[in-house]
Amino acid sequence: MKATDVRAKTLDELGTDLESLKKEQFNLRFQRATGQLENTARVRQVRRDIARIQTIMREKRVATSA
């Protein structure tokens, strides 16, 4: 997920994306704990996507309030 793609979305769309990524992160953590995780790089990728979305959501909130 690129930052330009994320910036093009609205706050509602970002919220739904964030929710789905957090669910995926939970499932990946569960799979890692039980030894079923095959793609270990996906954990890092999801974590960074969550951070990217949260950062851009905050930027949009600050821009609308200022």
Domains counted in the coordinates: how many?
1
Low-confidence stretches: none
Q: Under CATH, the topology is which?
A: Helix Hairpins
**Using only CA atoms, what is the Rg?**
14 Å
CATH architecture: Orthogonal Bundle
Our measurement of the CA-to-CA distance between the termini, rounded to an integer number of angstroms, reads 27 Å
Q: What's the pLDDT, averaged over the residues?
A: 95
Global structural class:
mainly alpha
In N-to-C order, the SSE pattern is: HHH
Helix count equals 3
Please describe the biggest sheet, giving its number of strands, its sense, and whether it closes into a barrel.
Answer: none
- Globally, the shape reads elongated
Number of strands: 0
Please give the CATH class: Mainly Alpha
GO molecular function, one term: structural constituent of ribosome
Protein name: Large ribosomal subunit protein uL29
Keywords: Ribonucleoprotein, Ribosomal protein
Organism: Stappia taiwanensis
